[in-house]
Design brief:
Layout: H1 4-18, E1 23-28, E2 35-37, E3 51-53, E4 56-60, E5 70-75, E6 81-85, E7 99-105, E8 110-114, E9 121-126, H2 135-138, H3 151-159, H4 165-170, H5 180-190, H6 201-220, E10 261-265, E11 268-272
Helix pairs in contact: 1-6, 3-6, 5-6
This protein binds zinc ion.
The site of zinc ion (ZN) has 7 residues, from loops.
């Protein structure tokens, strides 16, 4: 699943194509499993910005008369990706499979939402009112690369829960945007066992430092490409070669050469070093 660095890369690539554009027409897949909500309200509206919160993209729409301000909320789910088609002579849509939604813009470009497994989401909601339609977004913790995310916040959050540290990182309420890849990476870097249920202030501070470092480095390299994740231009993120832990089980630890192990934590496959990362 795309995490903060991947979604941030998508945001940066989309912004110049979408900001200020009017949506002339919208098509979406009527499949019963599709997670689309009020998407028809996009037609005729301008997209005024492309923002990100956790793993969500937020696109505010220009106000329609005196009506409430609206926002398009977009989540890529497990396998979603976005492409911009700027060449009407050779439409991408005819060569791409699993296109679930299409936004035609006033400059002739088309935004395509591909999603083989249909876990992605497109919802138009009243700006900031997420509770009813996208409750996860309503309860998101602070952005990890913002000043609101402090070592104290992380330490307090970990101290008040009996869940494993990895489950807490994946939960989104303690900190937004972290998924399986960057949880494994940060825990390895901070030398914390993923299943650990007691993380004191010193280790929480190390984990804070590790999260910020790992996420910043991954944003800089436009994320990690794996399975279906692609950037808007169809290219790959470059963080994969920097992975120390995620998906590296069976390989030697880059710090101590012990073979990395795999276990299931919080229902997710987890790689860790049995020597560096003790409970
Ligand atoms: Zn090690």
């Amino acid at each position: 699943m795309p995490e903060l660095p991947e979604v941030e890369s998508v945001r940066r690539q989309l912004a110049p194509h979408l900001t200020g554009r009017r949506v002339d027409a919208v098509w979406w897949d009527p499949h019963p499993h599709a997670r689309f909500h009020a998407v028809d309200r996009l037609a005729g509206r301008h997209l005024t910005a492309v923002r990100r919160r956790g793993k969500f993209l937020l696109l505010p729409l220009d106000p329609e008369g005196s009506g409430a301000a609206l926002e398009l909320v977009l989540h890529l789910g497990m396998t979603g990706s976005l492409r911009i088609d700027t060449d009407p002579a050779r439409p991408l849509a005819t060569t791409l499979s699993h296109v679930r939604a299409r936004l035609e813009l006033d400059d002739g470009a088309v935004l395509l939402f591909r999603d083989p497994r249909r876990f992605g989401r497109l919802s138009v909601v009243e700006a900031g009112r997420y509770d009813a339609v996208v409750p996860t977004l309503a309860r998101l913790g602070p952005e990890p690369l913002s000043d609101a995310f402090t070592p104290q916040h992380l330490a307090r959050g970990l101290a008040t829960s009996r869940a494993s540290v990895k489950a807490r990182l994946l939960d989104q309420r303690l900190v937004a945007g972290v998924g399986n890849i960057y949880a494994d990476e940060a825990l390895w870097r901070a030398r914390i066992h993923p299943a650990s249920r007691r993380v004191g202030a010193t280790r929480a501070a190390a984990l804070h430092t590790a999260l910020v470092a790992v996420l910043s480095a991954a944003v800089e390299r436009e994320g990690t490409t794996f399975r279906d994740y692609q950037m808007v231009n169809g290219q790959s993120g470059r963080y994969a070669q920097h992975l120390d832990a995620y998906g590296q089980h069976g390989r030697p630890c880059r710090r101590c050469a012990t073979t990395l192990r795999r276990m299931v934590v919080a229902q997710r496959t987890t790689s860790y070093c049995p020597r560096c990362q003790r409970i």
